[in-house]
Amino acid sequence: MNRIPPEPERQVQPAGSSYDRADRRRRSKGPWRRFRGWLSWVGVGVVAKIFPYVYYLYCWFVWKTSRRTLDLVNTPVASAIERHVGVVALLWHEEVFSSAFAYGPLKGNALASTSNFGRIITQMLEVCGNVVYRGGSSQGKSRRRRVLPDMIHFMKHASHCLFGLTVDGSSGPVYELKSGGLVIARACGTPIYLGRTWFSNHVRLPTWDRTAIPLPFGRLYQNAVGPYWIPAETSDEELLKIQGHLQLELLELAEHSMRSFEGEDAKARPRAGFPEGWTPRWAEGQVGIAYGPHDLKPDSPPPWARQRKPDEPFALAPSSRVV
Fold first, then answer.
1. Which of 23, 138, 201, 230 could form a disulfide with 215 if both were Cys (CB 3.0 to 4.6 A apart)?
2. Residue 163 is inside which H or E element, if any?
3. Is the dihedral of CA 280, 284, 287, 288 positive or negative?
């Protein structure tokens, strides 16, 4: 992997739903294809106007009817944003359905694809309070946008930034952590937190990631483990090692959330999609294994970490909507 080259100073803002108005696809040559494209555009537009509010109300109901087994996301991440301006949160794609609502109170900055389906996801994220970038890992020339430098630029210049990234998306392989979030953290001097939102009652969709849809009247587990730090001088070879470590940590966090509902008898149970032969590493009562000397020590950040200046505003006020 290569480092992101420096670029000229520019003002970059998240595109969100305005991307679709400014960057519509080129018109097809044939009239039938143009008609189908128009029909698809209008149909998706209608869904994008209605579904996000249905989603919000459904998640609100699920949260209201769920008993909290663990709820440790808002406080540690909000404190890290207040101190360091920016945070990179990493989570698995299987919890993508609940992530828009779960991280909305933290006013997260999310990444959604430039596809038609991405329009719906963008509206859903925005209704929940998130700010959205448009891009992704697709290699199609018509869809590819070089968003990583823009995200780095935005985090460096923002007074509040939380990038929540589903690290094995958008098409897998499942439970394999990609490096984009680590590259952002290295470039910006900001902490990484691993996030997890899980429900005892849920159903799985037949998708590559087995997306989990939460159901009401169960138990809710929310946890954020960190911080993890990546110095600016970290080589690409060393970054690969950190990437492997964080992948194991995120798998461990997923296992920890499942076991919190199932009990210790489920400790050795094989998990679908987990690497073959994977076994838990955390000791009894342990949450997180440090890689560097400042990892998992929120009150002892490295000297090079970005710190909020006294005159920098901090307007984050996590919502009490789910309390």
1. 201
2. strand 161-166
3. negative
Which ranges of the chain does DSSP label H, i.e. alpha helix?
A: 18-22, 31-65, 74-84, 96-102, 116-127, 147-157, 180-188, 236-262
Predicted confidence at residue 124, as pLDDT, reads: 84
Structure tokens at 210: 């087995």
In this structure, the strands spanning 219-228 and 212-214 are unpaired
CA 26 – CA 190 distance, rounded (Å) = 39
For the whole model, what pTM was predicted? 0.83
Q: Cβ of 121: how many Cβ atoms within 10 Å?
A: 21
pLDDT in tens, 155-185: 998 888 999 899 997 788 999 999 999 999 9
Contacts of 187 (CB under 8 A, 6+ apart): 3, 4, 152, 156, 232
Which CATH architecture group holds 30-266? 3-Layer(aba) Sandwich (3.40)
